[in-house]
Amino acid sequence: MSKKEIVIGVTGGISAYKTCEIVRYLKKNDFGVTVLMSTEAAEFIGPLTFRTLSGRPVVMDMFAENIVWDPCHIALAEKADCIVVVPATAHSIAKLAVGLCDDIISCVITASKAPVIICPAMNDNMYNHPAVQANLKMLKKFGYTIIGPVKGRLASGKCAVGHLADIAEITRAIEKTLR
Ligand SMILES: Cc1cc2nc3c(=O)[nH]c(=O)nc-3n(C[C@H](O)[C@H](O)[C@H](O)COP(=O)(O)O)c2cc1C
After folding, report:
1. pLDDT tens digits, 71-84
2. Quick one: which atom of ligand 1 is closest to the CA of 95?
3. Which residue minimizes the CA distance to atom 7 of ligand 1?
């Protein structure tokens, strides 16, 4: 049987470094993992880390000439068995809720029929803002699975809901989706 293919979208949140553990776990458990990053995500963690952990090139620029798949976003959308956005910023959640496709992550998700898992992580006031709540409600309506956020220590030092869900909970949700 061929490997299950998981596409991981990393967006620009402070918890982006935690996605490394998820990629490492999936690779170790014999899943094929392709990492996509927003430009802002690369402010928090370097693509080289994900390239090394996944053993595959990281896609950030869908217009790059050296992209192996042509057109990259459609090929990735079709081959994915599951797409996970972790961490998912308020910004990326808003884009997905309205179908705004201006980067590789939003294009792949919008072009795919694969199950989508969204793992929000942000400041608690951002998370509780009616706009973010309405956008998350819309993503649930699309059939996306939302994991977290949970209560925990945020970048501000405050303990509140906005913390990325536990890595184990996220990997469990991925495996459940693939079953
Ligand atoms: C230090 C720092 C930490 C940030 N952490 C978060 C975060 O955890 N969650 C979030 O939604 N936005 C966070 N932001 C804001 C996003 O980086 C910003 O909205 C960005 O445009 C997101 O782009 P993307 O969704 O395309 O990756 C942070 C910004 C800075 C400067």
Report:
1. 566 788 889 999 99
2. 25
3. 13
Other residues' Cβ atoms within 10 Å of the Cβ of residue 138? 16
| For residue 115, cis peptide bond before it (omega within 30 degrees of 0) | no
pLDDT computed for residue 73 by the predictor:
66
Percent of the chain with pLDDT over 70: 94
CATH architecture of 5-178: 3-Layer(aba) Sandwich (3.40)
Domain spans in the chain, listed from the N-terminal domain onward: 5-178
Structure tokens at 32: 């094929």
CA 116, 101, 67, 59 torsion-angle sign: negative
* Ligand 1 geometric centre to CA of 30 (Å): 31
